[in-house]
Amino acid sequence: MEKIAVILFNLGAPDKLESVQPFLFNLFNDPAIFRMPSFIRKPLAKFVSKKRAPYASGIYAKIGGSSPLLENTEKQAKSLEKVLKKNLKNENIKTFTCMRYWHPMTEEVVENVKKYNPDKVVLLPLYPQFSTTTSDSSINEWKDICEKKGFTAPTKTICCYPVEEGFIDAVTGLIKKELKKAKHKPRLLFSAHGLPKKIVDQGDPYQWQVEKTVHKVLEKLDRESFEQSTICYQSKVGPLEWLGPSLDDEIQRAGKDKVAVAIIPVAFVSEHSETLYELDMEVKEEAIALGIPEYIRIQTVQESKTFIKGLAELVEKIIEFKDNMMSDLPEKVCPPLFSGCPHKNKE
User: Fold this and answer.
1) What pLDDT does residue 347 have?
2) Contacts of 40 (CB under 8 A, 6+ apart)
3) Which residues of 220-246 are buried (b: 16+ CB within 10 A; e: fewer)?
4) What is the pLDDT of residue 51?
5) Same fold? 4-13+67-163+304-346, 165-297
6) Of 72, 123, 148, 195, whose Cβ has the fewest other Cβ atoms within 10 Å?
7) Partner residues linked to 196 by β-bridges
8) Calculated CA dihedral for residues 113, 137, 272, 173, nearest 10 degrees
9) Cβ-contact 267, 127 below 8 angstroms
10) Residue 208 region, left (φ>0) first, then alpha (ψ -120 to 50), else beta?
11) Does domain 165-297 match CATH 3.40.50.1400?
């Protein structure tokens, strides 16, 4: 049986308070985040990470001193490995967790995969919706490090899966579970991590893919179980114009309307600071202050059996797929205006 390595990409997060500033430096020093020459980007990243570290450290202190993102991702990796071994009847399958901005980082993971010596590698970002700032950054970093290390195993990439049935069913199931317990008919706020608008204007397909996800979820919900729905964006940093409406704007609007809200983190598949602090503490506190009658926060899919089953099916498909890159979009490629679509860059 051929040996297969499946690499699960994620953002990474500080494992202790002392890691916050170096983590932020790695984040802001990524050319996919700060799109400028390295001689400008590096000192700017040092300045911004130092300035922002005290505030960010306060956030992590409130959620236990570190992020659970790595632990959550490792659990997803183990669950996926177990399902793949069973489905493919192949014990020579190993999953690896690879973080972009904190450990285990790409160089270390490439070394470990190289020692494993697989016949085939599958790259699987844990970002359902593709963005040049997330999935593309991790994929490009992987390719660069592999080239430097002389690691040449045949590699296939799952670039995105915004409408994958297992992911959609997992999100929908979590929403239905909470709506059954709700005391009021809530307004659904599908919240995704924001992006500067100029990045989308430059051809990033993220917003379009988020909208595809939400459309599929809404198709599976009972329209009578909620008041209305909207897509909004959270976690804005800096002075640039970001995608809107913002989650804060929508919370303010719900406060004026005195309507209950259910927040759905539709672009996150595991818990971290944006959910545990921003949604569960900061936004919730604001909602209570505004007199919103009920605040519901839908959990992320994490190790949901439905979600993991969907990921396994994606991996199984791409192993047999003739091409080296695959999405779960029916169109395969994003519309013409999205030049950041990896399929277009490959052609």
Assistant:
1) 45
2) none
3) eeeeeebeebbbbbbebeeeeebbeeb
4) 96
5) yes
6) 148
7) 242
8) -90
9) yes
10) alpha
11) yes
pLDDT for 345: 62
Distance CA 52, CA 48 (A): 6
Contact 194, 236 (CB under 8 A): yes
What residues of the chain score a pLDDT lower than 70? 344-347
Residue 314 phi, psi (nearest 5): -65, -45
pLDDT tens digits, residue range 154-202? 999 999 999 999 999 999 999 999 999 999 999 999 999 999 999 999 9
CB atoms within 10 A of CB 292: 22
The domains of the chain are located at 4-13+67-163+304-346, 17-62, 165-297
Cis peptide before 125 (omega within 30 of 0): no
For 313, residues 6+ apart whose C-beta sits below 8 A from its C-beta are 164, 166
Burial class (CB in 10 A: 0-12, 13-18, 19+), 303: middle
Query: Residue 149 contacts by C-beta under 8 Å, 6 or more apart in sequence?
Result: 107, 110, 111, 114
Predicted pLDDT at 67: 95
Q: In this structure, which topology does domain 4-13+67-163+304-346 adopt according to CATH?
A: Rossmann fold (3.40.50)
Tokens of 46: 């040092």
Per-residue b or e along 86-113, where b marks 16 or more CB atoms closer than 10 Å to that residue's CB: eebeeeebbbbbbbbbbebbbeebbeeb
Phi, psi of 321 (to 5 degrees): -70, 140
Residues 6+ apart with CB under 8 A from 289: none
Note the pLDDT of residue 332. Answer: 80
- Residue 1: the pLDDT is 87
Q: DSSP secondary structure string, 249-288? A: HHHHHHHHHT--EEEEETT-SS--HIIIIIIIIIIHHHHH
The owner of tokens 């007199």 is 291
The whole-number pLDDT of residue 279 equals 98
